[in-house]
Design goal:
This protein is mostly helical and 210 residues long. It has a single domain, classed as Hypothetical Protein Ta1238, Chain: A (Up-down Bundle). It is 56% helix and 5% strand. The protein is built from six helices and four strands, in the order αββαααβααβ. Helix 2 runs antiparallel to helix 3, helix 3 runs antiparallel to helix 6 and helix 4 packs parallel to helix 6. It is elongated and about 55 Å long. The N and C termini lie far apart (59 Å).
Length: 210
């Protein structure tokens, strides 16, 4: 199991420095490079290798980008949103594992650990509803960039939208994609839009001059 977990961490980070840290309990790696990806391939969770240009790699790689973008946002926000963003970053590792799994080994996935669940989606929906109730959304299109924090959240939002599109494209190749993973990415981009508006406050510019 350890080797399989390390293989997925390598593929999720794209076989490059700066990938996700090893979970608690995993031994430190002596070398950051593995050379396994020198042929243009990357590993899937529970075995098998695919091209780094494979739709699966595009999907979970874009999830990894979302995690990184959210790191910038978390560094800029203050208040309860900071803890929420960290929780989301951790959950995106579940999404990444779900998308990065060898299709023939999906039965090995654990709900909430490597398999996205309905409950995870519902938690995002609850966060959206609670936030909108406290901070009603604007009635017009807005231009991102009112504050550094809101701008970072909007960047993460559009990256998340791209991750959703990549996951849909993966499904359209005939690859099995967990419907809850798609729902999670969709709801997450909505939540990030809401959080960006909260961070921007009343200072946002409309898409057309008033």
């Amino acid at each position: 199991m350890l080797n399989e977990g390390l293989e997925w961490l390598s593929c999720f980070s794209g076989d490059i420095p700066g990938g996700p840290a090893l979970p608690h309990g995993y031994p430190s790696l002596v070398r950051i490079y593995t050379k396994k990806g020198d042929d243009g391939s990357t590993g899937l969770l529970y075995g098998s290798r695919v091209s780094k240009a494979d739709p699966a790699a595009e999907a979970y790689g874009t999830v990894d980008e979302t995690v990184a973008d959210l790191g910038v946002a978390r560094a800029l926000v203050s208040g309860p949103s900071k803890d929420l963003i960290l929780e989301i970053q951790r959950e995106l590792f579940v999404v990444g594992a779900d998308l990065a799994t060898n299709p023939g080994q999906r039965s090995k996935l654990e709900p909430g650990v490597s398999l996205v669940t309905t409950e995870m989606v519902e938690r995002l929906e609850s966060e959206i509803d609670a936030s909108v109730q406290k901070h009603p959304l604007p009635n017009e299109f807005i231009v991102p960039g009112a504050t550094p924090a809101s701008a970072a959240l909007d960047v993460a939002r559009v990256t998340c939208r791209r991750a959703e599109r990549r996951a849909v494209a993966l499904r359209e190749t005939g690859h099995e994609v967990n419907p809850d993973a798609l729902k999670y990415l969709n709801r997450l981009s909505d939540l990030l839009f809401v959080l960006a508006r909260v961070e921007a406050g009343e200072s946002e510019e409309p898409s057309r001059p008033r």
